[in-house]
Here is the input.
Amino acid sequence: MSAGKVLVVGGGIAGLSTAWGLARRGFAVELFEQGALPCSKASSYDEHRIIRNAYGEMEGYADLMPAAFSLWAALWAAIGVSHYEAMPAVYVMRGESDWYETTRRSMARLGVECEDVPIDAAMARYPMVNPDGVTRVVRTGGAGILYPIRILTDLVTLIAGLGVVLHPDTLVESVDLEAGSVRTAAGVIKGDAVVVTAGAWVNRLVASTIGVAVPSRQAVMFLAPPPRLASAWRAAPVLIDIGADSGTYTLPPRAGTRLKIGDHQFTRRGDPDEDRVGSDADVARLGAAARRAWRDFDDYTVLERKACFYTVTADERFLVRREGARGWLGSACSGHGFKLGPLIGDGIAGAIAGERTAVALTVWAAGRAA
Here is the structure.
């Protein structure tokens, strides 16, 4: 459609990125967020997140990463500062899986470094890793850390400067995807299109997502390592443990952040209005996995146990599509949402502007385009 007025519901990385893409294309944009901007309950609100080219069996997402890195670079140029630190990602494998062959293939296609590290050398280099059951260690380039809270804060400032009208602390009660309007406590606001990027709250606004994009309460732990390992952790890369009983990811303490560990097993339960304090039940599985991944895990001090929410689909892919005559849905999935957020948001903006069809957008965002 020609430039008109678009209403964006949700102020996480998906909504802010969509608003940025629309504003750059000349649309009038209003963005609604039920909390502050940025919102501490948003799935994308965090100290640091991993970005990587390696995607295992999901090779279509590996193929999207060069464009994702390019758009991140455009964002750094727009805000005048980079909130990205490049570093290797090291994958510690325990047992066999299809991850290695598909990753090796996609990394070769992208021209990104991917090499085996001898296990003995890896254990000497990374003394925090538990060597029990390790069958392969793989070091990849094209990876690093993003700093989400800083990114979200600067994105809010950027889009406000581009004329996006921001509505923080404004709960959207319902959306009309046929008419292109939203209803808040203040009444109905009309636009030419509505984009719903409401994260774990999407089921409350778009009925077709119920049972498809499932809210999932996840836990992470922030820790202080024992003094004997403090320097090793400060120099460590991103570490990802792959195994039937492990499956953890670890971000080292960099640039004022804390050491963080999480896992990739989705609970597919919980209410996103719940608090974000990690309970004993939240971290029980994560703690067990951490003990398998790290040596002497009980010597670490737990600084904070935190819960967050993702939306998860059965195939762990983005759910991005046209909804009704004037509606669009942008639902992130699992841990892909942040690293690919600006690219997917820009893709939605481009589809609204007529740069690609709605069908092509859905296929592309699901990592299935040729």
